[in-house]
């Protein structure tokens, strides 16, 4: 195998066509290195390649990136990025890609598209907007659509759909002329809706339908959007009915049909259609709609059953969250306070880890939530301070022994600094017995409405309550390729 890996191969995503192919690797000595190093840089490059062959990716990465910045040779930064990708370190790959793009300047090549791709893979959607716009504006319209379609699978796999769709809306809105590809236009219409521009969504969907009047997805999306906004209900019914006739076994279209009938006051028919849709395809959106129809008929117990089923399917579903926030059933917590504190003890146990040894630790903790900031203080078993980690949107900062470390992901930062597999990102939401925003989650409750289990981000959380309002213990378990992680939190104080 060539020492210079293709980006698509390194990421294992070449089958989807979402990633650019890198330029041919350099096989000769880079000119900038040859003129400045007196042979030392070449020796370091050779040593780095040997290290990579031995699996010592970190050494090879650091050497190449350092040389790239010293010699101003973009090919060395490109190689550093490839090594990071081969090592499964997309955050380091992004750092190298940013250097590669900066050093490449306006020269032709794939550095800008690779940078955009890595920003998206690292879920940095707001940061990806302007580089993507700049990339597309530098291309011809035909090439532009090809690039957009290559990037679209990354939006579909986003951990936070809302952030990704808002980014896609900003990107396509800045492109002139508007792309004509039907798939791009449909995703743009969905993004416009997420970004709070239903008028743009409607306009784009009508463009699609003017070109293909039997486009089932466009018929259903436009009809549902009109019904949800209580606009042009007769037309919405016609659109969704046509979509249903074209695709009678589609549960989501049947859900739309039930929803427009509910808006038209046909509640008995709406209930029947929504129940059939939910039976065909259990989805949180459908269960949320069924619950609202039942609620409107004063069938409170039936609505609660439907909504709890929706929570179990995906507690972070946007339709469900909006419905519960608007109708406020009494078994759902509506505490909007963003200030709270928890204090107690923790233990971490990792089994099946490297060389079969069990690892872990224990100590005390204090978690303080203040608006959009979480501060987690960790103490050793005798009370001495170990570290303080501050988590804000987009950044985590860890203070330890007078040193400060920063990263985008709080969990990785804590694991690398302390060796403790504690989930720090969004921990305050879990302390409140709520799914944290940004990814799908399953929530289960007991007969009193208390949360007994949350499954999210690979973690299974089990809650033990001392009384209806006081959380006594939280157990968090996660199974990974390196072993099973179990975290136990025992609370001495909880203000929630």
CATH topology of the largest domain: outer membrane lipoprotein receptor (LolB), chain A
Percent helix: 40-55%
Structural class, from helix and strand content? alpha+beta
In total, how many domains does the architecture comprise? 3
Termini Cα gap: 57 Å
Can you identify the CATH superfamily of the largest domain? Lipoprotein localisation LolA/LolB/LppX
Q: What top-tier CATH class of the largest domain fits best? A: Mainly Beta
SS summary, helix count: 21
Uncertain ranges: 1-36, 354-358
The side-by-side strand order for the widest beta sheet comes to 6-5-4-3-2-1-11-10-9-8-7
From the spread of the alpha carbons, the general shape counts as: flat
Any idea what the radius of gyration is? 26 Å
Which range does the strand content fall in?
15-25%
CATH architecture of the largest domain: Clam
Sheet with most strands: 11 strands, antiparallel
The average pLDDT score comes to: 83
Q: Tell how many strands the DSSP assignment holds.
A: 11
Could you give the topology of this structure?
Blueprint: H1 7-11, H2 31-36, H3 40-53, H4 57-71, H5 74-86, H6 90-104, H7 111-121, H8 125-137, H9 141-156, H10 161-173, H11 182-194, H12 198-211, H13 216-228, H14 233-246, H15 251-263, H16 267-280, H17 284-296, H18 300-314, H19 318-327, E1 339-351, E2 359-370, E3 373-379, E4 385-392, E5 395-400, E6 403-407, H20 410-418, H21 427-431, E7 441-445, E8 451-456, E9 459-467, E10 470-480, E11 483-494
Antiparallel strand pairs: 1-2, 1-11, 2-3, 3-4, 4-5, 5-6, 7-8, 8-9, 9-10, 10-11
